[in-house]
Amino acid sequence: EYVNSLLSGGEVPGLFSNEELEGILAPLREAMASEGFQYSSPFEFFTARVRRNLRIALSMDPTNPLYRERCEANPALFTRCCIMWAENWA
Predict the structure, then answer these.
(1) Which of 7, 48, 50, 63 is in Cβ range 3.0-4.6 Å of 76 for a Cys bridge?
(2) DSSP code for 14
(3) Does residue 62 have a pLDDT over 80?
(4) Dihedral through CA 26, CA 42, CA 81, CA 7, nearest 10?
């Protein structure tokens, strides 16, 4: 669920407290202004940067009985990712 949230929205809801978010967002206000205020809030700017810069390497075994269930529960794996299929690993 966390991976799906990160991939689709750039955030994990409830990950940061309000105090932690303020510490993260305060320095971004200047960077947001330098990009021309195309974002409605510093938090939106933050999540856009996370989505743009996020890289995740995930390995899943398609022979696992839960593989299909996990894929269906995390649609962002297919809509927001580049999938590289690998054959047998020795």
Answers:
(1) 7
(2) T
(3) yes
(4) 80
* Residue 33, both tokens: 């202004």
CB atoms within 10 A of CB 7: 20
CA angle 27, 7, 1 (to 5 degrees): 110
Structure tokens at 58: 């995930």
CA distance 26 to 73: 34
**Number of C-beta neighbours around residue 77 at 10 A:** 19
The pLDDT of residue 65 is 95
Give 39-90 as a DSSP string.
Answer: SSSHHHHHHHHHHHH--------TTSTTHHHHHHH-THHHHS----------
Burial of 46 (0-12, 13-18, 19+ CB in 10 A): buried
The whole-number pLDDT of residue 19 equals 93
Report the distance separating Cα 47 and Cα 87, nearest Å.
Answer: 34
